[in-house]
């Protein structure tokens, strides 16, 4: 009598290599959309942080019945002094201002520390602002005090990845003090962001 042979069960090397090849092809197809998704989410998160900062500065001006300003700072972890060079990407600080438009000070004349600071995002994103580069001040009513008929302010947040169209968001500030985020995309013909 002959014994029946026990067949070995499992995958052959050819079958295993075919599955690995198919997985590699699918991963190569999915990688570019994933990087774009991550870039879009970083820009959206940074835009929402800026929107929150502007809204909290406005609400503090209304609540405290005193002018509150938002300005660019090159040293958000240190002194957080306002700068006027227009580089809003290094950091943004919120200060209480006096009626003359200067930073509020204590009785000894020392400027008060910032109320809130938005740190720079270290992910290669760029923040620019249209118009004048000085502080933005909100008054007791929550309106933008420095409005001189120049229109709205747009903070443009964009990726600096040159391999693909730049992802952009614009945080728009209106003379009423309200702000909102506008999603845009550049296709090489202008910024693609407007308020």
TrEMBL record:
Q: Which InterPro entries match?
A: N_methyl_site, Pilin-like, T2SS_GspH
The yes or no answer to whether the keyword Flavoprotein is present is: no
Single GO biological process annotation from the record: protein secretion by the type II secretion system
What is the annotated signal peptide range for this record? none
Q: What is its main location?
A: membrane
Keyword Lipid biosynthesis appears in the UniProt entry: no
- All residue ranges annotated as the General secretion pathway GspH domain in the record: 46-177
Q: Which residues cross the membrane?
A: none
Which keywords does this Swiss-Prot/TrEMBL entry list?
Cell inner membrane, Cell membrane, Membrane, Methylation, Transmembrane, Transmembrane helix
Q: Which Gene3D superfamilies match?
A: minor pseudopilin epsh domain
Please give, as recorded in its UniProt entry, the membrane topology of this protein: Single-pass membrane protein
Instruction: Tell me where it resides.
Output: Cell inner membrane
Of the GO CC terms on this record, one is: plasma membrane
Q: Give the UniProt family note.
A: Belongs to the GSP H family.
Its protein name is Type II secretion system protein H
* Source organism of this protein record: Derxia gummosa DSM 723
Q: What is the lineage of its organism?
A: Bacteria, Pseudomonadati, Pseudomonadota, Betaproteobacteria, Burkholderiales
């Amino acid at each position: 009598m002959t014994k029946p042979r026990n067949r070995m069960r499992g995958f052959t090397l050819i079958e295993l290599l075919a599955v690995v090849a198919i997985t590699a092809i699918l991963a190569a197809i999915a990688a570019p959309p994933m990087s774009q998704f991550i870039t879009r989410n970083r820009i959206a998160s940074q835009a929402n942080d800026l929107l929150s900062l502007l809204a909290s500065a406005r609400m503090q001006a209304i609540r405290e019945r005193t002018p509150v300003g938002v300005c660019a700072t090159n040293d958000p972890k240190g002194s957080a002094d306002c700068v006027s060079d227009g580089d809003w990407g290094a950091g943004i600080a919120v200060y209480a201002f006096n009626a003359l438009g200067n930073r509020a000070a204590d009785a000894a004349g020392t400027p008060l520390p910032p109320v809130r600071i938005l740190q720079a995002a270290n992910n290669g994103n760029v923040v620019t602002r249209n118009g004048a580069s000085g502080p933005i001040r909100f008054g007791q009513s929550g309106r933008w005090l420095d409005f001189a008929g120049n229109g709205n302010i747009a903070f443009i947040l964009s990726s600096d990845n040159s391999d693909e169209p730049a992802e952009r968001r614009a945080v728009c500030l209106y003379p009423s003090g309200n702000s909102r985020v506008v999603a845009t995309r550049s296709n090489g013909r202008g910024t693609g962001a407007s308020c």
